[in-house]
Structure formats: C-alpha cells, structure tokens
C-alpha cells in the first residue's frame, strides 16, 4: 500500500517533519491543519481491506488496529491499551418519541474515556515509525489527558502545553501521568492565544530539532484514527439492521478533526466498494460558540471562519467548555464534510442539554447501568440535535441517526451534579456509573516521575525557554522507561 501526505490547500505532496506547507501565506491560517493522507491500493490490497471489514471482530484485543488502512500498523507491537471497538446502542425511547432509529456510539468506553484515544494511538504509531521517543501536544482537555495516558503507558517523554485558563484539575491529572506541563500566560490567556505561541515554535522547527514529534492538531495522523469510528459504525449497523450506513451521523464538534475523520472513513468505505452510500454529516455545537456551524451557515468550505463569542451565554460556556471555540483548527475540513454530505449544523444550549440528560438517564436507565453509559454533558448535544433535525425536516420519519458520544461523564462530575440538581434518583444512577468506570479504567503502569509544571509569560521567548528547560531536565532527572519496541 502506497501512502503519502499532501497539502490540503495547494495539493502538492508534502513530507515536512513539522506538518506545515509554505503555500499558506495568511498568518491567521498557520494554526490550521495543512496536510492530509492519501492512499493507493492494488486489487489484492483492496480485497484484503474488504475481508478485514467483514471479519472485524469486537472482541479482538487489537481494537481499531484491525483496520488495514490505519497507517503504520506495523509499528503497533507491544501496545497494551485497546482502543476502539466501542459499543453502538439503540435508544428505544428516543427512537419511539422521534420516529427515527436513534443510536449512540459510546466513545466514552475508550481507555481515557474519550474519542481522542483513537487520534493519540494513530499519532503514536507514526512517532514509533520515526523512531522518536518524545512528543509535544497543545490541549486544554481530553486530547492532553489521552496523550498523557498513552505516554505514561508507553514510556514516552511528553511535554504538554496548555493555556492559562485551563482547569487546575486537568493539569494535575496530566502531571500524574508523567507529562511535564507548560502553562501559557495568566488565567485570562485564551486557548487561541496560547495555541498561536505553540504554532510559532512548531513552525520555527523548535520541537523537531529537539527530537519531539508534534501530536497537536496539525498532525495529519489524528484524523486517520477518527476514521476507524466510521468503519465500526458501518460494521455494527450491518450486524444490527443489515444496512451499514445510517442516514445521519451527528458529531459534537469544536475543533472539527473527529467530524472530518469520520467523514473520511465513510468516503473510504464507499470508494473501496465496501458500502454503496454515504451518510449526511451533522455538526452539533454550543450556541454562538462554534466556527464550524458558522461556516456551514455561510456555505464556506475553503477558508477558516472565526466565531464571535460575544453572544455566548455564561451557562452555556460552563457546560460546554470543552467544545466552546472561537476557532476550530480543523474546521475547514469539518465544514467541507458537512456541506459535501448534504448535512447541516445544529446549535444547542444548556436548557436542551439538561433536558436530554434527564430524559436519557430516566428512560434509558437500564441500558446506562448495564453498559456504563454516561455521556459527558457536552456529548448530549448530539442526542438533543435529533429533535431539532426532526422539527426542521432534516431527519425524516423512519430514517436512522447515529449520535456520537464523544466522552464519559466521569470527567465532568461537578457539571453533572449541577445539571441533575433536583433529581436525586438520577444523580444516584450517574454516581453508580461513575463508580463502575473508575473500577474499569486502566491502571497506570510503567515507571514515570510526576511531571513538572512551569507557568510562563505568554510570549514566544519565554515559552521556548521553558520547553528547552523541561526537555533537558527530564533527561537529567531520570530516563523514561521505554517500551520494548524502542529497545536497542
């Protein structure tokens, strides 16, 4: 199988180590993903992919590594975290009320409790291919937690950059996993401001020259992990209803990589002749805080669109903090996926999220307890979107919809308690599920020191110096225990 990276803007082949392209002149676009992967298969390889799809087993310890078109699978030896194979559940009460078949794909059952594990594993495989033992990432939430977990399990050195407005609890978790953390600026420093600094170091080859792979959004291998979600949905629906492709797939999104990757996966299946149709992709976002929704409304799929957060309600900002965005750094490809597929955008606020959470835990309680399903609050917007789609006639009677549950509620216990105030029975149900999730979560293995934390001014020279200091200190204190894959 031949594969190569190409620029999403100019189309030229691109093998830059820092995942950038010189064709992008506009400084505002430098933070956005620039590269995508392309594949060329012969007839035998296509036959192998078709066979692998039909034989895709949801008890296989390899997890999503079963899919042949996941790049660098040959570098997977010794990985002991099973990613993917997340369940697809039919919501009987939602289906009856809406007149459509409503399924949820529960990505909260991944090792770190989030879909980001698919992206992290894909990045890790490429890092192994490059024989790198170090990585950097910029994130204020789930991506950083996922990267920290995998780095700990695999014995990689990881330095995580976060904006100053990141919750202290998240930073502590990342440090406990062994990752050093650089906090950029004060509590008023936004995600976007901090990311521009991170991008500046990347474009100056600071990370590459120090031997660190970049796992942040510009890494084109992230969406390659997301496409395996589409493969699993198709295989599961084929088994459950003999129709592999749903009419609609609803994805809670801010940055957009998950949505773009899932769409790429469905297109790949159709291109190879495994399926014969495509779903309509729906982006679900927090009201007044989603650049992908704005781009879809504008019919813009060529250039980035920024979102004005001045209309964001305070309660919506709190409940949906992980998907509130002024800019989405994969939003160009995400908007393109929605518009190409004939899909649409749905924006949801706190009232709708609370309403659907209560309904889910009340009417689907047996399913939730049996399978440990507890969506993090922002994930409920995918289920809430079904009602809007029906009222707008974007989802017709008798059709099927898959709502992506992007993460588990164990990471948002405080918000869950606030939303369930006045519903003590439902709160007990949520607490039971959280207790189960704790028992089933992977135990941190390997030997790794607790990560250091550096708080620095939000300027390029200060951030660069903090990176150099941590990179050198980590090696001087104690070498990380490397996975046997790297042993020489």
Please describe the structure with a list of short key phrases separated by commas or semicolons.
488 residues; alpha/beta; 6-stranded mixed beta sheet; 5-stranded parallel beta sheet; 14% strand; disordered C terminus
Explain this structure.
The chain has 488 residues and is α/β, with parallel strands linked by helices. 42% of the residues lie in helices and 14% in strands. The protein contains 18 helices and 13 strands. The strands form three sheets. The chain has a six-stranded mixed sheet with strand order 3-4-12-9-10-11, sandwiched between helices. It has a five-stranded parallel sheet with strand order 8-5-6-7-13, with helices on both faces. Strands 1-2 form a two-stranded antiparallel sheet. Helix 4 (142-154) runs parallel beside helix 5 (168-176), helix 8 packs across helix 9 and helix 13 crosses helix 15. The chain is globular. The chain starts with a strand and ends in an 11-residue tail after the last helix. The model is unreliable at 477-488 (pLDDT under 50).
